């Protein structure tokens, strides 16, 4: 006697399927958008499904509006994170610029001092040559 029962494949949770707009089905196929046409159960509501849904295996199924809301929340969070990074870069930029200006002022000050020292030494050297 042969056992004709198919063993069900269990798929691990996949973020590309379960969060936001599904990118791939558990079976690897590309999800498709369908419209509910059941009377009394969200007629006209859009959802993601898989073209292979009839094979008895596990496939993606998700309301389109839920996916949109997940994506929007993720985008909002991402925008807040980027805004915070921009603020930090602005602060860091100001600090780095200030440090560079201070280093340049020190270099200019050192060059002016060396230039004055060289002029004085040259003048003293010329006076000593004239005196001799």
UniProtKB/TrEMBL annotation:
Does the keyword section mention Nucleus?
A: no
Which Pfam family is an annotated match for this chain, by its short name?
Zn_ribbon_GRF
Q: Which UniProt keywords apply?
A: Metal-binding, Zinc, Zinc-finger
Sequence ranges assigned to domain GRF-type in this UniProt record: 25-67
Q: Quick check: keyword Zinc-finger in the entry? A: yes
PROSITE patterns from the UniProt entry: ZF_GRF (PS51999)
Cross-referenced InterPro entries, in alphabetical order?
Answer: Znf_GRF
Coiled-coil region(s) at which residues? none
Top-rank taxon, per record: Eukaryota
What GO MF annotations does this protein's record show? zinc ion binding
Name it. GRF-type domain-containing protein
């Amino acid at each position: 006697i042969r056992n004709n029962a198919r063993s069900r494949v269990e798929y691990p949770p996949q973020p590309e399927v379960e969060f936001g707009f599904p990118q791939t089905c558990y079976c690897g196929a590309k999800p498709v958008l369908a419209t509910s046409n059941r009377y009394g159960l969200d007629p006209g509501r859009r959802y993601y499904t898989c073209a292979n849904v009839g094979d008895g295996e596990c496939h993606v199924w998700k309301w389109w509006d839920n996916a949109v809301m997940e994506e929007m929340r993720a985008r909002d969070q991402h925008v807040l994170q980027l805004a915070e990074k921009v603020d930090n870069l602005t602060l860091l930029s100001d600090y780095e610029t200030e440090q560079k200006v201070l280093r340049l002022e020190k270099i200019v000050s050192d060059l002016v001092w060396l230039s004055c020292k060289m002029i004085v030494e040259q003048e003293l050297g010329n006076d000593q040559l004239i005196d001799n």
